What we know:
single chain, alpha+beta, Helicase, Ruva Protein, domain 3, Tetrahydropterin Synthase, Chain A, 49% helix, 23% strand
Amino acid sequence: MANYTAADIKALREATGAGMMDVKKALDEAEGDKAKATEILRVKGLKGVTKREGRSASNGLVTAHVDGGVGTLVEVNCETDFVAKGEKFGELAAKVLDAAVTSGASDADTLLATEVEGKSVKTLLDEASAGIGEKMEIRRVARVEAPKVVSYLHKTSPDLPPQIGVLFGYEGDDDSVAHDVAMHVAAFSPTVMTREEVSEEMVANERRIAEETAREEGKPEQALPKIVEGRVNGFFAENVLLDQKFAKDQKKQVKKVLEEAGVTAKGYARLRVGS
C-alpha cells in the first residue's frame, strides 16, 4: 500500500483542486510522493484541456478595478456555477484582473499573453482548468479612462459572484449620481452612449421599418412622418444611454439627470457573463 495518509489526500486536493479519486490514484502511482503526485495530476489535467476546448464556458464572473481615472473590467468564464462560486476560481479571477490592470490590456488576446508569476495568463488558465476539470477562458476585457471612473458589480443570484459589471467614466463632483448611472447601465443595458454613435445605416433601417409598419397598420399618409419620427426616437430611447429614461426617475432622461447634477458622461462599459 502506498505510503500516504488522509491528511496527504486533503492537502493535495486543496493544493490542486483535483477530485478525491484522482488524487488517490496519483498518490498510488507516485507511491506516496506528493511532489510527484502533483506532477502526475498536472500532466493528466493538461492533457484534458484540449478535450475541453469545444465545451461551453457560459458561467463565471465579472470583476472590476478602478484606480483614479482608469477602470478595468474582466469577464472570466468556466462551465458551471458550482465552480464559479468556488474560492479557487475567485482567486484565479483576482490574479487575471491584476494582470489586466498591470499590463493595461484592453482585449482578451493581449491579456492572455501577459505574464503573471513567470507564466502567461493563458498558462495560468490552462493549469487551473487541469486542476479543477473545467474549461476556463477570458471572454472579454474592457477599459474606461476619464477624469473619474466608478464601477458597479451586480449579482443576478445571491449565491453567485457578480454576473454583471459596469464602468462609468465621467467629469463632475456628484459621485452619487455617477454611481446611480452605473447601476442604471447594469439594469437597462444600453448599446451606445450617444445618438451619434448609432450608424446612419442603422437609423435609416429603423426609419424604413417604422414607415413600412405604419403603412401596414393603415396609418394615414399625412401622419406618417410624425409616426416614423416618434418610433425612431423610441429606438433611441431604448438603446442610447443618454436618451434612456432614468432607472430612479422615469420622468427624466439620463442626460437630464446628469445635466442637473453637473456631471458629463465620458464613456462606459458593460459586461454580462455569457452574453
